[in-house]
Write a structure and sequence with these properties.
The protein has 343 residues and is an alpha/beta fold. It has 13 helices and 10 strands. It is globular and about 65 Å long.
Amino acid sequence: MIQSKLLNVFIRLLLFFTAAIAILVGTSHTSVAQSDYPNKPIRFIVPFPAGGATDNIARPLQNELLNTVKWNVIIDNKPGAGGNIGAEIVSKSVPDGYTWLMASVGTHGINLPLYTQGGGKLPFDPVKDFTPITLVAELPNVLVLNPEFAAKNKINSVNDLIAYARANPGKVNMASSGNGTSIHMAGELFKSMTKTYMVHLPYKGSPPAVTDLMAGNVDIMFDNLPSSINFIRAGRLKALAVTSAKRSPAFPDMPTIAEAANLPGYEATSWFGVVGPANMSADILNKDSAVLMAAINSPAVKEKYLAMGAQPVGNTPAQFSTFIKNEIAKWTKVVKDSGAKVD
């Protein structure tokens, strides 16, 4: 009997020490993995096509990280559904630091109220399913027209456009980079505040929409400034105003929509930030945050952003988390007040 009890005690002690050793070994492997991070390429999902504003914001970061800290970041464009396709991929990825999303005001501000207003549902939760890393940049949108459409209808100002749209309800086609994007919502807010009706035509990103705009297949667009800036300068698009509360340093003589049309309170800007899947470890999150903040604040990246009309930001994960929650609250009100819907 005594021998049996001693044997049971011995077995329990053996199991205890075996489990303890396993935990220590696992912790050691985790520490090695985290200290060695990243030891393979990071997949950076951009949920819009190449050549659009979101893509243009991501690529200077990619180059800077390779040049300074030798991180191999591979951009993977996954456009569609107003950025939701790419965002869903990241929301369901392993939180090991090797999958990032270039989030936007669409994916993490507008889409939740927009897609749920009509009883629909997003395939992810923009707060619970992601780990905010840093806000990268902010920029205005710009109201641009096809030059031939503007000339034919003598539209040379925002007030001219409002007058024409009111006199011709449903005859103005308004392109966007997709449902729920800042481009879409800038137009919906404009329609709501000016009491005009224009037909919304969503595209899979800015590049195809801008291409059709220049070709005359659509009439107007509230495009992200980086996507249109070179076409404006080349005269292939006619710009009337920016959508921000203040004028853009890139076009200091161009008015804001609020001042051009006497629409106090009109503001619809875009922002872009890096997020990962939910439950990223503190070690990896802190490393990502520090490296990205340094890249955003580097002279090379700042120069590229300012040239395209974007304002570099860079903040902490906690600050970015609060920012996202505030944006969702802000755009929930805008979506409700404007009556915007998914087309």
